[in-house]
Amino acid sequence: MTTILDHLSIGTPALADGWQLFGGILGGTWVEGDDSPGFWWGQLKFAAGPKIELMTPTGGRDAAFLERFLAARGAGPHHFNFLVTDIADTLSRIKAFGVEPVGVNLDSPIWKEAFLHPRDAHGIVIQVAQQDGSPSQPPPRELPEPGPPARFDLIEHHVGDLDGAVRLFSEVLDGQVAAASPGTGTAELTWPGGKRLRLVREDGLPLGGALHHVRFSRAAGAFSAADRERAAALAGRLGVTVELAG
After folding, report:
1. What is the mean pLDDT of the chain?
2. Of 131, 160, 183, which residue sits at a domain end?
C-alpha cells in the first residue's frame, strides 16, 4: 500500500487572495477542482512538494462544516490530505493505532474518504482518501498567469506530543523519518515528490497542535522585496504564515 501527503487545504470565504498568492506569486499551476456538496475546491501544484487546495463554502446544509470553521477562526489551514491506494487497509491501520475515523464515506467509486478529528490528529483535520479519476473543470477565470516556478519545501506543524505525532505520521501514514532531534523537540518526515513535514514540540496549543508556517523557494532565482511584501499581505488574509526562502 502507498500513502502520499498530497495537499494542504485552506478554507477561505473568498478565493482571490489564494489565487494571487499561490498562483501569481508562487507559480502554482491548475490541477483540478469541482463543486462538492456545500463547497467548491480547487488545487494548484508546484515545482515540487504537496499541492495547495483552496475551499470556499457555497451554501446549504452541507456547507455547515466549513461555515462553522470560518466563523470560529476565519480563513486558515483546514486539513492535510493523504492519498492512499487501499483505504480499507488504511482504516484498519488507523483503528489499530487506537483512533476511530469519522466521516467515513466509501460509497463513491471515484472518491472514498475518511477523516481524523483534530483531537486525534495533533490539532488539524487529517483526510485520507482513495481516488480513481479526476474532475476536468477548466481553471477559474480569476486565476492569474503563474509566476516563476517555486517549490513547496516544507510544512511546519507544532504539536504538544511529539512522539505521538511522529508515530501517527510514520507508522500509520507512511512518512519516512528524515531527521529527529529529541533534545530540541523537532522531527522531520518525508514522502515521495519532495513532500516534507517538520514537527516541533510546543506546549499549550489548542487541541494539541497547530500549523505554524509553510515554506516556498524559487526553483530558479530569488523572491524580490515586492514579492515578499505582497505575499505577506495575502497570506495574512488567508490565515497562514508563508516563509519565502532564499
Report:
1. 96
2. 131
Range of the domain at 101: 3-131
68 class by beta-carbon count within 10 Å (0-12 exposed, 13-18 middle, 19+ buried): exposed
pLDDT of 217 strictly over 80: yes
Same domain, 217 and 179: yes
Buried b or exposed e, range 17-32, using 16+ CB within 10 angstroms = bbbbbbbbbbbbbbbb
Output the nine-digit C-alpha cell for 26: 508562487
Share of residues in the chain with pLDDT > 90 (%): 94
pTM of the model: 0.97
110 and 193 inside one domain: no
Mean per-residue pLDDT, 2-30: 97
